[in-house]
Amino acid sequence: MQFPPEVLRVLTDPRTIIRDDKVGVPFEIDRPVYEQMNKVLKEMGGAWDGRKAVRAHVFPYRIEEFMRQCLTAGEYPSKYEQGWFPTPPSLVMQICDLAGICAGMTVLEPSAGSGAMTREIARRGGVVDAVELDSRRAEVLREQGDCRRVMHGDFLDLDPLDYTEEGFDRVVMNPPFAGGLDHIQHALGFMSDDGILVSVMSNGLMWWSDKATVEFREMVEEVGGEIEALPEDAFAVCGTNVRTCLLFLPGYAGSRLQTYDWLLRQPRQLDLFAAA
Ligand SMILES: C[S@@+](CC[C@H](N)C(=O)[O-])C[C@H]1O[C@@H](n2cnc3c(N)ncnc32)[C@H](O)[C@@H]1O
């Protein structure tokens, strides 16, 4: 959900205090603007505390870093709009540690949002390419300037062999929860044989009983990967209690993961119509 322009102006005013679990506006604003802001902050999980010593919207969690991400993106996740849940900073750290990202590694973030993960990957010296479906978020990623390449488009439409000349060392992702497994399986095609993929996903990945999910879990076990439940409040900072898990999928030569190198080894279809 986009911030109404007047609310964005107030929240990015240098006088506004966004600290720990509180958002306070210590200057006069018009009543209609206050009402709009109150509505937005409530949708994000805050509640007005009018006591003289507080006079701020108070959140049940630390809002500071998260609000910074939202204000940069110009939008916030609300209970009325599912889909964009920027990965909270502590989880970003956990993902980058698990993926073992270090200087010089090539990293793909295939549903990059407004760059919660690309920022940390670049800070660790990773060379990161990002894909994002939403044009405004893709623009935020470009402005942020920490990616080698930002592509605006549908990741599921990209052919790995057209997109890159070699597989990525790492793939880290927090794809949309609807169709998350499709995103993960497609992303494997961008990873090199000895790469590692780490992804957040709906914790249904741990128990869904449909054929695709069951086979996927078998494959994860076979290659020595892991699926670990994340704490129930992992995304509380985004105002949602969606339950999630973290997938760790290590590649190695000879595994049956359908990686970039695996795709390269497949016989290419003869182009019967190519000019002689
Ligand atoms: C759960 S958010 C996560 C954003 C980011 N990865 C992060 O960790 O903060 C999912 C993002 O995937 C994007 N997205 C959804 N479908 C996509 C697709 N088919 N191709 C690329 N991006 C997509 C959404 O616009 C959204 O920004």
Automatic annotation (TrEMBL):
UniProt entry keywords in alphabetical sequence: Methyltransferase, RNA-binding, S-adenosyl-L-methionine, Transferase
Domain Ribosomal RNA adenine methylase transferase N-terminal: 91-218
Statement: the UniProt record of this protein carries the keyword S-adenosyl-L-methionine: yes
A Pfam family this chain is assigned to: RrnaAD
Highest rank taxon of the organism: Bacteria
InterPro entries named among the record's database cross-references: DNA_methylase_N6_adenine_CS, KsgA/Erm, rRNA_Ade_methylase_Trfase_N, SAM-dependent_MTases_sf
rRNA-binding among keywords: no
Listed GO MF terms: RNA binding; rRNA (adenine-N6,N6-)-dimethyltransferase activity
Protein's UniProt name: Methyltransferase
Lineage: Bacteria, Bacillati, Actinomycetota, Actinomycetes, Kitasatosporales
